Structure formats: C-alpha cells, structure tokens
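Progress against Task 2.4 (sequence-to-structure conversion) is shown through the following example record, which the project officer requested during the mid-term review.
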Amino acid sequence: MSLSNIDITKVKYFDLNNEVNIPRDDKIQLDKDKEALTDFIEHNVRPNTKHFSSLKERFDWLTTNDYIEEGFIDKYRFSFIEQLYDYLKEQGFHFHSFMAAYKFYAQYALRTNDKEYYLENYIDRVAMNALYLANGDEALAMDLADEIIHQRYQPATPTFLNVGRKRRGEFVSCFAIQTTDDMNTIGRTINSALQLSKIGGGVGINLSNLREAGAPIKKIKGAASGVVPVMKLLEDSFSYSNQLGQRQGAGVVYLSVFHPDIIEFLGAKKENADEKVRLKTLSLGITVPDKFYELVEQNQDIYLFSPYDVQRVYGVPFSYVDITKEYDNMVANDEIHKKKLNARDLEDEISKLQQESGYPYIINIDTENRANPIDGKIVMSNLCSEIAQVQVPSKVADDQSYETLGTDISCNLGSTNIANMMQSPDFGRSVRAMMRGLTHISDVESLDVVPSIKRGNALSHSVGLGAMGLHSYLAKNHIQYGSPVAIEFTGVYFMLLNYWSLVASNEIAHERQETFYNFAKSTYADGSYFDKYITKDWGPQSDVVKDLFAGIFIPGPADWQKLRDDVMKDGLYNEYRLAVAPNGSTSYINDSTASLTPIINRVEERQEKMIGKIYYPAPYLSNDTMPYYQSAYDIDMRKVIDTYAAAQEHVDQSMSMTLFMRSTIPAGLYEWKNGRTSKMTTRDLNILRHYAFQRGIKSIYYIRTFTDDQDEIGANQCESCII
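Structure tokens generated for the chain above:
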C-alpha cells in the first residue's frame, strides 16, 4: 500500500466528513466528523507511515538519507531526545477533527522523496520544532515541546514546516521593502521582489517615494511615468518568480493617500481597467495620515504633493515627512507641485474599490507612529497588514551596490492558542518559552539575497507573537463575541502577552548583555513606555473576567514598575515583539478559529484541490455553544473593531483585521441604515473606517463582502504570510 494507491472512491473519510454538512433531525452530524477522522487515521495514515524498530534507527535513517539536518541534533545527548519523545508520547495527543489531521498530513508531514509514505507524525514534527528552536538548551526544548504538543503555541507555517529538514524552504516568508525616487533603487527593488518570491516570500513594497506621472526628470529632460508602470513590473516579477510554478508569487504595494498618482493607483485594480494597467494578482494598500480623515470630516479639498518636490524641499524621502504636521506648509509652498481633489470624492473611490475587490488595505500611519516606541519612522506594512516596524531607506549606486545600506523588514511569526493558553499551568513560562523559540529563528535568519533585510533583522531581532482562537474560546465559555465581557477579556489577555514578552526579551538582553540597535533612543529606555501601566490597573474588572483568569498571575502597577526598572537597566533584545497575523491551515490543525475574527459559518466549507469539499465544524460546537457562534457577516463590525482595539492597546505592532459585510445588510444592524437602502454602500464603509480610526485601529486588512448570489469578494488567502 502507498499513498498514490489509495482509491478515494472507496475510502469512507471524505464521505463521512461530507455528511457533517447534511443535517439529520435538524441537527449537525458532528459525530460523522469524528468517524471521518478515525477512518482517515486507519486507512490513510497508519498503512502509509514508514516504521522503525527504534528512535535511534529512525534518526540514523533520516540523517543518512538526507531528510533531516544533523547539526541541531548533535547539540543534544541522544538520551535526552529519547526522554523528550517519551514525554511527548505520554501527553496522549490526538487530533480533534478530520480537517486538522488532513491538513497536517497533506501539508506538514515529512514524506519520502517519491511522496508515497509519511516519515513523521505530529509528535515527530513537534519534536523537530522543539529541538531546533531550543538550539541545544535541553530545558528550553522540553518547555517548547510542552507548549507545542498541548497546542498553546503554534510556530508560523514556514517555521513549523521547515525546521529540521535537510531540503527545506526558509523559516520566514514575509518581508517589507521600500524604494526611493531613482532608477537604481527601483531596479534593486524589482530584483529583491524576484529573490524573495523565489524563496516563498510574500513581499510588501512601499512606492510612496516615487515621483508622480508627468513629473520632470531633469537628467534626460523628460517626464516620469509614475507608479503604475512600476506596479506592473512588480506584478510580472511575482508571476515569473513562482517557485517553478508551485505557487503564485505574492506582493502588496503601498502608496500614500496624498500621492498624486493615488487615483491611477486605485484604478489599476478595477475590473474594467485597461489591460495595459490592470493588476490581476498584486495587492494594494494605502497609508493614511490623520490629516486625510480631518479633511474628509470637514468636506474640504485635498492637495496631493509631488514626492520629487517634497524630497527637494525637506531633504528626506516623501514617506518620512509628517504630512499631518506639514500639510498647511506644503500647501503654501510654491516650490511643491500639487494636485487638488475633493477629499470625500477620494474617500468614495477607496470604498468603491473595497466593495469591488476587498482592496485597498488601510494603514493608519500616524496612529502607528504615535504608538511606536522605537526611534525612527514606520512608513508601510507587509502583505497582511500586521507588521509595523521602522525602516531606514537605502541609497543604491549605478552599479547596483549600496552607497548607504538601510534597514528593511522580515517577519518572524508565531501564535498563541487562546483556549489552550488559558489552561496553561504557568502563563508566563509559556510566553517566555515562545519568545525564546521565536528569537532563535531571528538569530539564525540571514538572507544574503536582500542585504537591507539581512541588516534590519540583525539589528532589530524583531519577532511577532500573536493569538488565534478568540471566537472559539468565547463560545466555549458562553460569551457573545463583541460583548463587554468579551472585549474586557481580550484586553486582559493581550496585556498579559505584552507583559510576559517584555519579561522574556529583558531576560535575553540581560543574559547576552545585548539589546536591539538604538535601544537607548526608545521609550523603553527612558521608561515612558510603561507610564500607562504604572498609573492604571489593567487587570480584570468584572466578576466574569476575574473568574476566567482565576489562578493566572495578573501584573499590577507595582509589577509593571519593577519591569520598567529592569528594562531601563538591562534593555530589551527584541525591537518588536507582538503582531496578530491571520491564521491559515495552522488554525485547523489547532482545532481553533482563526486569529481574533468571528467565524463565517458554524460548519466551514473548504474547497481542496483534487479532493473536493471538506467541512470543518467550529471548535467546541454543540447545542450549548451554538447560540454563541454568530456569523461574522451578521455581526456589527463595530464589535470587531472594538475587540481589535482592546488588543491593539497592548500590541506594539499591528493586527490583520478583516471587516465582513453583506451586499444586503440585515435590518437593524447599523442604525444609520434606518430609512435608507438595505444595500451596502460606500457610505457604510466610510463610516466604519472612520470609526476604526477613532478607536485607534492601526490597520484594516481585507473588506470581505458576501454577495446576494452567495459569492465572496475580497476573500483571497494570503498564503505567504498567514500563520
């Protein structure tokens, strides 16, 4: 028997799983999913897994046949590895749904070169991750094994999939780079996009510094073509560099809402755009300063400024000028060419495109910089909008070498599973182990192909620990998503993540006697970052939330004050620590709902290549939890925004927040619809974006629209960047 010999017309697991979607006596047949899981393990996994007489024989065979690396294994006594395996087996791990097991074996389990046999199970993959991430530290390896096997911690897909393998991809697959206003940097950016896409990277690219179409190019006495042709070059680059056809290269380009090419930028994504400029696969995002919201609210005209002139006047690239602060000066300055539009007309153009495609992502750039504890400026985001880190622009010479090597961003991600973390025997110990595992990925990452990313990572040691499974945890505990109790819980949970990630980073800095670059210029170093935690108790206030956190240490102002003193004394190793990414297949493996978002369906339908439809019942779904599983499309999006705002209060980077809308909005959901059309309009999206801005939301990812003909718009999966 081998995997290719399985006759899918005869196995029962797909049919059993499909019965989950067929109600019986008006009830969801949840038991059928358990039967499908059992049948899958019995008829797919067990007969097609290569077995060994001992653990030593297994490791020797895998090493000899070039399946796993030797270096990290050699850092441990083999008796310890046997001890680690004994512990993992004692935990009695098993998958809770057919989807979880199917996703693991289809996407993560190591197979023979001919793909016919599995060479590992979930315990083996956990062991590989624990041993690699601990880098020879036996105590840490045991801690990480404990966190991952109990699914309190989930490394990002590139890490979880690749660690330990001899033939592997990179451990990170999410990057952010920027270009400045010259041909050399544009060429270098396109090369970087090719290189990063080749290794499986999802790439964010900032184009705001490029001069607009029609701007003068004095050296050749000509005129610039603007950002759209560069966007087309980038889209073609991602399409070409597609890992031998295995996957489509993925990228997002960002442009300031004050850039003169903004209308053309948005227009390139429209369905009816001319084929010469139309972008089919490239994602769009815009950076939005506070001034834009102010101009819209006052129904004023908006001036769009030439990046070439702005750089000439201010001496820095366009992205690095504080437009909100300098707006009136720039309007009055005759040296800066400008274009005038009505601000509300521009806002409507943004909403029209969001209705049509889900794009653009919105980055509230002043909000990000106000909350930024690090010296420097945030100018863009990544492919999923959760990364918010400072960058320094590079200057590229005519021979494509660097005259000035700046810093760009790579994303080292991982996620806590909220429901399982709330059962942790020691919340703080869990987070500290996770931070050390993430930090090791940052330490070993070294991308020579893009020197600015290599330098940025080497100086910052940045990571992004997040969370998944909020809705499933709330439903399990009979709490409605978006209720005051749910929002209070979210705030306390992320306060704890913030506290313990700071403790861990401080401990690493103390041990290594090393901090991230320019720590002395951060608000951590002068202690001001901690002011809000020392002057207010952020712990649970309601009895319900106090009960949820019963037995878990809650730091009070005195604890934060001691942490402040420790950080001021020994510093932090990681420049950035927290970010909430969207979750892909790992949320299924964890039997969790994705990220902090509400579910879409109680039984989710997934279309799998070559297989057909697979159904995934929401975790903990039962008659008792059913009322707490309301679809995102039927929830007031202000509740989602309030939920993310509660978390954002404690997250130093950003979060991938998706908004869910119906083409026909349910009656009574939004009071401003009363007496108006029930159809979704640009006004609805405008109101929600302004509400998000007022609540301190840093970024908005997709707008997903469920249409009247049962289709979804803006539902693309960002495969490179999802955890």
